[in-house]
Design a protein that fits this description.
The structure is a homodimer of 464-residue chains. With 464 residues, chain A is α+β, with helices and mostly antiparallel strands. The first copy, chain A, has a six-stranded mixed sheet with strand order 1-2-6-3-7-17, with helices on both faces. A four-stranded antiparallel sheet of chain A has the order 11-13-9-14, with helices on one face. In chain A, helix 4 (129-146) crosses helix 14 (442-461). Chain A is built from 14 helices and 18 strands. Chain A folds into two domains: 6-203 and 373-461, Zn peptidases (Aminopeptidase); 205-259 and 304-371, Alpha-Beta Plaits (2-Layer Sandwich), CATH 3.30.70.360. The radius of gyration of chain A is 25 Å and the shape is elongated. Chains A and B meet through strand 9, strand 10, helix 6, helix 7 and helix 10 of A and strand 9, strand 10, helix 6, helix 7 and helix 10 of B. Strand 11 (305-314) of chain A pairs antiparallel with strand 11 of chain B, so a sheet runs across the interface.
Chain lengths: 464, 464
């Protein structure tokens, strides 16, 4: 299909107030999926979405999972050849507490004026009801103007994202065939700024380890034994203290061996204008530190890290206790980048640890999580389609961004369905996600709908 | 005075059963000073001792403190020139729990046969009623045989040793003049073995520090910030990991600068036969580690150390949390040896810490305790007197030993009264101090009495 897009855009613009009204209807349903007291409302939101999609010609259904149900809906598109696009989102929201910090009730959406125009304020305004409604409104525009969607679409909206998606892996495995598609589109990320769209193309992976050292068989008095026995805290300090060299490079053997060359991206991210001061201010800091030779954006997007996440051992109450503890424990995690293999890094850490372990000190090493980095190939025709769509709407090229942390659904979809995700989101950094007075700029909502509408047309012509 | 000692020895030997009986009378009083329910019995034990000392011609009194009362008693000795000797001990005992692990009731002393002869079993048998009764019985022998003591004596027995001596400093300050003496004698330590006496001549001191690092102003997500901000746990690991070099030497600047040359002792302790296997077995270990070039005894007696006593920071519960914590805290302590100054070491640690602190990371450093090492000069005439007395009774020279930890009373007496202590104790390592079936070998009790009786004569002739 190759139908003019202008009519779609006009339809969306003319009907914008109705789109906002529908989003408001959804926001009024307190689908706090994390709280069993709200199970009825959570299912109500899911059913509302099933009805919306059914009205647009989808074969829509509410599917049971081990936890909150999933909305799954299929549209055949115009028929004939062409890819199938999977849209992922979630209809559950975070609890609204602390309620007294909200200016207006969290489940009574209001439109208020802000410095960048009107915005809608409610729990879920952006995360993720607003972002999900953007593509649903884009589907509606296509249906209303041309009677069908330009491409085959499957929608999958989960109800447990804010609970850590405990049923996601099982559901994807069980519905692997039904959810099969060529590419996934996710709207759960942010723009570069309100005028500049962004596409997420790299997500760092994770290796999370817990190490416990055991020295003596019981706590010892440091006067009687100090100086002559292995102190697990001293040894843990030595191991952890050696993790980075003076240039901030991780010293685990082989850590950097298999890193993929990022090509142009490396230079782009090195030089990308970035409001580092604002980034640091959010953390109460005035200076960035990290691996020498890299910009802050590179350090958080494309460089692997090793951070200690927790340590405990010995006496930690008030005052002094002269103890040599029998045990000490640390949790640490590496953010992984493309090319790094979690199993190899874990082996490397074991070698690193054992090289620093004196006689008489034993250890246990547990893996508490491992996921590889994810990267969308910059040659992907779907990514190109998204770039073109965004350029069309915003009249400027999107910034290709990395993301320091993982998005579990993207990893799970990659693992179980074998497909990549286009991360095209329209949030802003100041949207107060998970916090009181969560908001979504109406300008972002409108541009998001338009971008999704154009993307549908572009995807119709794309093929891997 | 220069009176024959043999008559005293004979008197003590002939009257040994009576000495044991008096010790048993004292052991029957459950003076559990740590437990307010036993306050009546605690005071009863103190009064029993006041009466014993009064019967021996002492001007004896029970003095109030902020807590349990103190026994203070003075004997003028024979008059004329000569030193005054302060005897320190304590009449309070540890609680007896767990009671079901005692073979016989803890406050019903019994004489039982052991592999090394008869022993008396009861709470306080050795710690410290048995050891205190040794010098009281020696006083009695002198009184009975010669009508007086050969030297001026002050006795100070506290009732809060097992509670950490909370009133000791205040009491010593308030009674500084009354307790003034030339040397203090303490019987609260062990022999080398049942045939070989020991004199403690060195006690390591202590510097206890707590350091808190603050990086970001709140906990951060390691995905969003990891790699670009100071992680207080990473930095703490670096600081603590650098504390020792590969030879086990402490790297705090100036740490070893002012160490006193121990002369012959160094060689003696290097070569002293020591049952290291048994020492390690108590700690569940099979191998000693520590500063290169030193024996285990040197490492715990005469070498300074730095041990981390506690660390806490970040997430320490079950499972994984990808947090960069805002704060991390460590407690660490240095055992100090003669020549080291706690204030200088603390300054050195501050320098060491600041050299490893990246921009944007703040710290707090608190001192939770500081006490210098204590050493009895090997030239001290009082130490010579004790050596001579022990050689006389045991027919072999005592071993001059170090002690890895401090004895608070010895430090307090040094600080407030300005005098050294002779540490002449007759316990054995297997006496089960603070544990069920605490015992004291009667052979040790008898040799201890004889040694104290001879020591009184030798001290009469000693003068600094």
């Amino acid at each position: 299909m190759n139908l003019p897009i202008d009519a779609i855009k006009t339809h969306l613009t003319d009907g914008f107030d109705q789109s906002v009204k529908r989003l408001s209807d959804l926001l009024r349903i307190p689908s706090i999926g994390t709280d069993p007291d709200y199970n009825t409302q959570t299912v109500e939101a899911a059913n509302w979405l099933v009805q919306q999609l059914a009205d647009l010609g989808f074969d829509a259904d509410l599917k049971a999972t081990a936890g909150q149900p999933a909305v799954v809906a299929h549209h055949p598109g115009p028929g004939g050849e062409g890819p199938r696009i999977l849209y992922y989102g979630h209809y559950d929201v975070q609890p609204a507490e602390p309620l007294d910090l909200w200016t207006t009730p969290p489940f009574e959406p209001v439109i208020v004026d802000g410095p960048r125009g009107k915005r809608i304020v409610a729990r879920g305004a952006v995360d993720n009801k607003g972002q999900s409604m953007m593509f649903i409104e884009a589907f509606r525009a296509w249906k209303n103007v041309y009677g069908t969607l330009p491409v085959a679409v499957t929608v999958f909206l989960e109800g447990e994202e804010e609970s850590g998606s405990p049923s996601l892996d099982g559901f994807l495995r069980a519905h692997k065939h039904e959810l099969q598609a060529d590419i996934c589109v996710v709207s759960d990320t942010n723009m570069w700024d309100i005028d500049t769209p962004a596409l997420g193309i790299m997500l760092r992976g994770l290796l999370y380890l817990e190490v416990t050292l055991q020295g003596p068989s019981q706590d010892l008095h440091s006067g009687l034994y100090g100086g002559a026995v292995p102190n697990p805290l001293n040894i843990l300090g030595k191991i952890l203290g050696d993790l980075h060299d003076e240039h901030g490079r991780v010293q685990i053997p082989g850590f950097y061996d298999d890193l993929v060359d990022l090509g142009d991206l490396d230079q782009v991210w090195q030089n990308l204008a970035f409001d580092e001061a604002a980034f640091l201010q959010n953390a109460g800091l005035s200076q960035s530190i990290g691996e020498a030779g890299y910009s802050t954006l590179q350090r958080i997007w494309s460089r692997p890290t090793c951070d200690i996440n927790g340590i405990i051992g010995g006496y930690t109450g008030a005052g002094a206790k002269t103890v040599i503890p029998e045990k000490a424990m640390a949790k640490l995690s590496c953010r992984l980048v493309p090319g790094q293999n979690a199993a190899n890094i874990k082996d490397g850490f074991r070698t690193f640890l054992e090289a620093r372990l004196p006689a008489g000190c034993r250890y246990e090493l547990d893996e508490l999580g491992a996921a590889p980095a994810l990267m969308v190939s910059t040659d992907s025709p779907y990514l190109k389609a998204a770039e073109t769509a965004l350029r069309d709407v915003f009249d400027r090229a999107p910034i290709l961004v990395g993301m320091g942390g993982s998005i579990p659904a993207v990893g799970a979809i990659r693992e179980h369905l074998g497909i990549e995700s286009i991360l095209m989101g329209f949030g802003l950094d100041d949207d107060r996600v998970h916090a009181p007075d969560e908001k979504f700029e109406l300008r972002c909502f409108q541009n998001g709908m338009l971008s999704h509408a154009v993307l549908l047309a572009k995807l119709a012509g794309a093929d891997a």
